[in-house]
Amino acid sequence: MGATSYQALSQTWARIYRLAHLHSIAAWDSAAMMPPKGSEARAAAMAEMQALLHRMSTEPQLQGLIDAAQGESLDAWQTANLREIGRDWRLSNALPEALVQAQSLAGARCEHAWRTQRHANDWPGFLENFREVLRLSREEAQRRADASGLAPYDALLDKFEPAMTSAEVDRLFGEVQQWLPGLVQEVRERQSRETIVSAQGPFPKQAQRALSLDVMQRLGFDFEAGRLDESAHPFSGGVPEDTRLTTRYREDNFVQSLMGTIHETGHARYEQNLPRAWLGQPVAQARSMAIHESQSLSFEMQLGMSPGFVGLLAPLLSAHFGAQPAFEPHALHRLLTRVEPGLIRVDADELTYPAHVIVRYRIERALIAGEAQAEDVPTLWDEAMQSLLGLSTRGNFKDGCMQDTHWSDGAFGYFPCYTLGAMYAAQWFAAMRRAVPDLDARIANADFAPMFDWLREQIWSQGCRWTTAELVRRASGEVLNTRHYRRHLEARYLN
After folding, report:
1. Which of 42, 46, 132, 293 is the most buried (most CB within 10 A)?
2. Which residues contact 168 (CB under 8 A, 6 or more apart)?
3. Which pLDDT value is given to residue 495?
4. Are strands 235-239 and 242-247 parallel, antiparallel or unpaired?
């Protein structure tokens, strides 16, 4: 008896997964290990791989197989997998191979040049590459819009956060903007009366790396299925069987690498605990990028900044850097939860972080809609930062519009996922505390099992079995609700 249509599809997507594995490791290597003179050859190789993967997922016979598989007898997981295969197929068929290859090449060139251009504050040099990335991204957005019936920007947003629209983002962000500025002001006034004990460096890079590895181990990272390296911009990549994390170090500030590593470990634990029986199939992938960010922010913000966890960090800092007053638990918690508007998103405190996301969201929507051009970005950035955070970036491109790698690689539509992820993370912990009333006391005693078990059962092991809305409802009992985010922030910073 021959293979069913569903089996033929699952075999094709298993092959795609294995080749995408190689592509992801090549991408990690280009950011973490590759010598500079390898960039052009690597960009060409990765563009070739992208074209091959696109070709495999748009083979003409696939549509017939998908249609036929709809009538076959499938269990619940297979039905969900077929739904995700169909989504992958539709996303791929919206674009011609030539565009996919051109985007890969332009993005790789722009991102590689960005690494030195940012440090040199070289906006004109960056702009030369960025114009082409934006042109191709606009073409992608329009083609996806034509295929899906969505607005162009929504069609890009849908890649990262399925079924999310800019109208819904506007509603959720609008709710937050109603109360967040007042909360920031109230917290800053309160903190102005507090004494902050600054940590005294330097903090040697090797000591910071040792601390990061120590914390990752305590957070359950599987070092036999992953590793930590260094890059210009922290990220997580690879595949569940081989998860690659990066961080970056400053010898005058240990917080950046420490909290960045905790953040990326949250991403990694999600990847390492996706449903193993289904690895290689779309149903075993992470549900969405906002759900992914909810895992990193569950680790970094919900857990990592909690008083109980900070109490556990304090002796580790003394062990790796030497004892000092700033590492006393209460002083350390004040230091880590200090609210201070700044220029850099990845270094932003928990309260002002959403403003950084809103700045980028507004600008990228205007860019994709053609309401703004590439050369307008620095002015738009400065105006938005002045409006939302009271800070100017005029002439300071490296700490302004050139600080992130996302746009250089054409990842328009990703930025909203960060704040959506923070909202989801708050909602997860509200549900956890209902299920485990003594959760915070157990965390303070280094018992992370309730948190990990809840995330594993409700999020990690579910992969893409459910739509995002259904996953959220099953895990927390309701749709995404900004009330939990507000309650979390008020409890942490006012109580």
Report:
1. 293
2. none
3. 86
4. antiparallel
Query: ∠ at Cα 186 (183, 192), nearest 5°?
Result: 135
Question: Looking at this protein, which amino acid is placed at residue 149?
Answer: G
* Cα 374 to Cα 397: distance, rounded to the nearest angstrom: 13
For the chain, what is the domain count? 1
* pTM passes above 0.85: yes
Distances (CA, A) of 13 to 23, 84, 91, 104: 15, 11, 14, 21
Q: Is residue 387 in a domain?
A: no
Q: Which residues, including other chains, have CB under 8 Å from residue 130's CB and lie 6 or more apart?
A: 110, 374, 407, 408
Mean pLDDT in each 10-residue stretch from start to end of the chain (495 residues)?
89 98 94 93 94 96 97 97 98 96 95 95 98 98 98 98 97 97 97 95 97 98 97 90 95 95 97 97 98 98 98 97 97 97 94 97 98 98 97 97 95 98 98 98 98 98 98 98 98 94
**Within-domain flag for 45:** yes
36 occurs within a structural domain: yes
Kindly write down the DSSP assignment for every residue of 325-343, as one continuous string: GGGSHHHHHHHHT-----S
Which whole-number Å values give the CA distances from 422 to 44, 484, 485, in the listed order? 36, 10, 7
* Catalytic machinery residues: 264
